[in-house]
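Re: the request from the purification team.
They wanted to know what the chain is likely to look like in 3D before they choose a buffer screen. I agreed to run a prediction and write the result into the notebook, where they can find it.
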Amino acid sequence: MPIKENLRKILETIPDHVTLVAVSKTKPIEELMEAYESGQRIFGENKVQEMVGKWEELPKDIQWHMIGHLQRNKVKYMAEFVSLVHGVDSFRLLKEIDKRASGQNRTIDCLLQMHIAEEDTKFGLDRTELEDMINSKEFKSLANINIKGLMGMATFTENQSQIRREFRQLKSIFDDLKNKIPQLDILSMGMSGDYKVAIEEGSTMVRIGSSIFGARNY
């Protein structure tokens, strides 16, 4: 089924207040252009080098989201153009983004990644680390980042009630944090397999790849 059709079908299942990030990692330029020509403007990549290559070739009104695990030494390559960093999973990474954004004379929007899955493989902050970070003096002094919300990934499982429980946990952390940082408006949770549950539990941004572009190319 063509990408245009896939996009239309998915958008029909997503309410207006939820943003669709088309996860284009490993996909060729032609396929991104097909999605672009169907009206999609937000693309998510998980490797900085690949994202830079696509940014250089594709139309400049595309918003690029860094959705993968981000190494500090890679931030400099994307600081000029990245729209949103989903996976800020440490204070050291946040400080590096702030430093590189300052060098580009811009502010970079960020989501703090929370560890909600029962699997150990996922990256992210726990509640204590989150509290310590946002209450620190140093955090308040970062002038070139803008915390827009939270991101989290549920356990990769068929168990719907577990997935729902993990998303609900993230939503509750988000609501608590909103009392301290009122401008938060993005809760990025949900992927091809679980985005409908995520939306029911309060997600405002879903990251969908295989349901748009088909299985990944490795």
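For the purification team: The domain at 3-213 is CATH 3.20.20.10 (TIM Barrel).
Please add any questions underneath this entry.
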